[in-house]
Amino acid sequence: xxxxxxxxxxxxxxxxxxxxxxxxxxxxxxxxxxxxxxxxxxxxxxxxxxxxxxxxxxxxxxxxxxxxxxxxxxxxxxxxxxxxxxxxxxxxxxxxxxxxxxxxxxxxxxxxxxxxxxxxxxxxxxxxxxxxxxxxxxxxxxxxxxxxxxxxxxxxxxxxxxxxxxxxxxxxxxxxxxxxxxxxxxxxxxxxxxxxxxxxxxxxxxxxxxxxxxxxxxxxxxxxxxxxxx
Amino acid sequence: xxxxxxxxxxxxxxxxxxxxxxxxxxxxxxxxxxxxxxxxxxxxxxxxxxxxxxxxxxxxxxxxxxxxxxxxxxxxxxxxxxxxxxxxxxxxxxxxxxxxxxxxxxxxxxxxxxxxxxxxxxxxxxxxxxxxxxxxxxxxxxxxxxxxxxxxxxxxxxxxxxxxxxxxxxxxxxxxxxxxxxxxxxxxxxxxxxxxxxxxxxxxxxxxxxxxxxxxxxxxxxxxxxxxxx
DNA sequence: CAGGATCCACTATTGGATCCCG
DNA sequence: CGGGATCCAATAGTGGATCCTG
Lengths: 230, 230
Fold this sequence. Notes:
CATH superfamily of chain A: DNA mismatch repair MutH/Restriction endonuclease, type II
Strand content of chain A: 15-25%
CATH topology of chain A: ECO RV Endonuclease, Chain A
Number of domains of chain A: 1
Helix content of chain A: 25-40%
Largest sheet of chain A: 3 strands, mixed
Oligomer: homodimer
Number of helices of chain A: 6
CATH architecture of chain A: 3-Layer(aba) Sandwich
Radius of gyration of chain A: 18 Å
Order of helices and strands of chain A: HHHEEHEEHEEEEH
Shape of chain A: globular
């Protein structure tokens, strides 16, 4: 199986994704021409890259939805032995200087999260990378309640950034959406406005969804399997 | 100030207790004739004993409410630097053999918790015992919702004990009420019925309230200070 | 022993730091 | 560098063990 072509409809995408359930990363990687390393520390992100190819995602590393034509973002979710998300989910990098003149409705966070295909992947650390299985995929659009939570966190954080208080932000802030470093190492720096609008150099950051939030989302989507009419 | 006499009304008790707010355990201990050791590990329970004397509790170590005439139980709650309960709250020992023929309505847990005077005490471990201050006291009667939670946990746990499954009980069980060891050391043993009703020797245990539960109760009671009419 | 509880080793969580690819 | 994320040291939480007094 070569890397797939882009699916032409939501239905086709979900069908394809669900047909991958049960496959191991080793098999799936081989099918799309990606070798899976032994060491997990040298392979961060590889599950996401394999699934992009297997499902025909087109955006590459451009700032667009993975499935451009469908406006759908692909996210793999690492699950622990109990089936709960093991890690937070990266949403997007933050352009610190652009936050001051952006509204929630135009934000990259809302765009990225408007329609997401979540693909769970086993990630118990004692299971070798190659043996980890793909789970059942779900297409998610935030409910009004979920949007309200995201928006409240985003506005609080955006305001702090716009005010130049980026150094006061820690990963503790935000009930469901948090800001954390997003950099190759701790010494990376980029420009941001400070309290007086002058430039300061600060660490690059990104928005992340907390594991408890993605866990609740997955639980809701799984429950909907039992009530096909809702 | 000598040890107090028993207060004659709820109102008198609460007034007395609130007049202690702000005092340090060292001062209060001196007033009632209790010397406060330096080492906290040698003084478990001393805050409770000082407050019993200061408020005129009468029951001693009998299985009765601390204020017999008023039917009120006294509990000190250790608070961390953030004002949240640091430890679980001991409710009562469990007579394992008596659980089989006891209903919730007659249980010691319900009796003990029907009316409780909670007295918070500072307990940040870097604050010396003598310097820890008494906080604002609150008289608590469980709401219907709180009673429902307590009852559900109690019935589940009582059933396990009655069935002889006491060794299967861990501190993980119970949303607000849990069962944990209550013994001078890990080798204490007492008799309990086993699965077939024969005797088995097991560790003495007690019921405890989880810190998250007492924290929520205190938060509700504090909030009521702002709305005196509710 | 019953009643007053806290101690503290261990587990679970988390958030700052880091790694690969195109 | 932007996009795909996970690693793992440090902190928070918990529950089994323990301590004092009358």
